[in-house]
Amino acid sequence: MPLTLAVADTILRQALAHARSASFKPLSVVVLDQRAAVVAAASEDGTSLRRFEVAQGKALGALAFNLGSRRLATMAAERPHFFAGVAHSVGAVVPGAGGVLIKDSEGTVLGAVGISGDTSDNDEAAALAGIAAAGLVGDGG
User: Fold this and answer.
1) Lesser CB count within 10 Å: N end or C end of the chain?
2) Percentage of the chain modeled with pLDDT above 90
């Protein structure tokens, strides 16, 4: 099942609704399909500069390594030289919570959502809420 625009839009809108209900700082949200193409993206009024790129980097890293970006942050701390090489050769991979794999009920990866703007834990919570609202499974690592 591909990640449709309608599903990606639900993830995005529900992630932002969760953030507003919890009084998070303004967020940027990027939803990528399994080939890392942007399906939906939005930045709330008041997000700080470059949040979109950070959100996209969290989602891209999750897809590239097939791991949530929380796990990538742990790996980056354990293997800093490897991740320095990844950043140099691959580019925008951001190892910090807030990049969550989007899976169907059978565990197939459909894409990833990346969020940036508040604490990494809150970014991840918003992503997981959006994914759950779409009836899918989030894997933040």
Assistant:
1) N
2) 75
